[in-house]
Design brief:
5 helices, seven-stranded antiparallel β-sheet, Glutamine Phosphoribosylpyrophosphate, subunit 1, domain 1, six-stranded antiparallel β-sheet, GATase_2_dom, alpha+beta
């Protein structure tokens, strides 16, 4: 399966520390070698970088680690292909525009037999189930906000995403992160964790590399960062999501949570290490 990373920050933040550990999973500390990508929001605009090369060997990843971009919202993905070849058009995160907002989406899982797409203007460019699911969600948002384009109402957006998740998670494993530059939405189908860093800060060490940072040296009381990842990136105390958790983060804070049950047959197909089985509800 693929690996997800998202950050929600109260202030523009240099994310090169998290990105360094995450990129190592693209061919060095893990076997995800079918491409990678990252999206950085800067105010209303979003920069998206994708590469079909493994993240660990990607010159684009190396450039971004050495020339960090500060951002309040970041979505990143490293890919192990299940549907669609290792091509640029199949690399996450995918991006679409709705009512002047740029939305980005990344998925970890495998959705089978999605069926007929939702009616609407959004259609996949590549051949992945992930992009098809993203277009499904975007068409639901488009239909809901067609006559009242207040997509800044993040609670209303959350409700639409919750309904779309109910419809999609029956087709298979559907861990995802989704952002409109204001909020980060994250769903745990089988595996997802998060940590919230806030004042007073402490230090952290990457689990995928010999690198540590003392956030107390650079943080201020105004800073707060939520880091969401498939599995913990650091030696900090992370919160493990339960299958079915749908979360919404904004400015580094967890603002809302809902439960969208994962079908038993989907959980039965998931592969867990023995230490992870206790985290799965009976």
């Amino acid at each position: 399966m693929c690996q997800l990373l998202a950050l929600s920050c109260a202030e523009p933040t240099d994310v090169s520390f998290s990105l360094t550990g995450f990129a190592a999973r693209g061919g060095l500390t893990d076997h995800h070698v079918d491409g990678w990508g990252v999206a950085f929001y800067e105010d209303r605009a979003c920069r998206v970088f994708v590469d079909e090369k493994p993240a660990y060997q990607s010159p684009v990843a190396e450039f971004l680690k050495n020339h960090p971009i500060k951002s309040r919202n970041v979505v990143a993905h490293i890919r192990k292909a299940t549907q669609g070849g290792a091509r640029v058009e199949n690399c996450h995160p995918f991006m679409r525009e709705l009512h002047g907002q740029q939305w980005v989406f990344a998925h970890n899982g495998d959705l089978q037999r999605l069926g007929e797409p939702e009616q609407g203007p959004y259609a996949p460019v590549g051949t992945t189930d992930s992009e098809a699911a993203f277009c499904f969600i975007m068409n639901r948002l488009y239909a809901h906000f067609a006559n009242h384009a207040d997509t800044d109402d993040i609670d209303a957006v959350f409700d639409v995403i919750e309904q779309a998740t109910h419809a999609l998670n029956t087709y298979g494993i559907f861990n995802f992160v989704l952002s409109n530059g204001t909020a980060q939405f994250a769903y745990c189908s089988t595996r997802l964790s998060y940590v919230i860093r806030h004042w007073p800060f402490s230090s952290a060490r990457l689990v995928d590399g010999d690198l540590s940072v003392d956030f107390a040296e650079r943080g201020t009381p105004a800073d707060r960062t939520a880091v969401i990842a498939t599995t913990p990136l650091t030696d900090e105390v992370w919160s493990t999501c339960q299958p079915g958790d749908l979360l919404m983060f904004c400015s580094g804070a967890l603002l809302r949570r809902a439960h969208v049950p994962v079908p038993a047959e989907v959980l039965a197909t998931a592969k867990y290490a023995p230490s992870e089985l206790s985290a799965i509800p009976a």
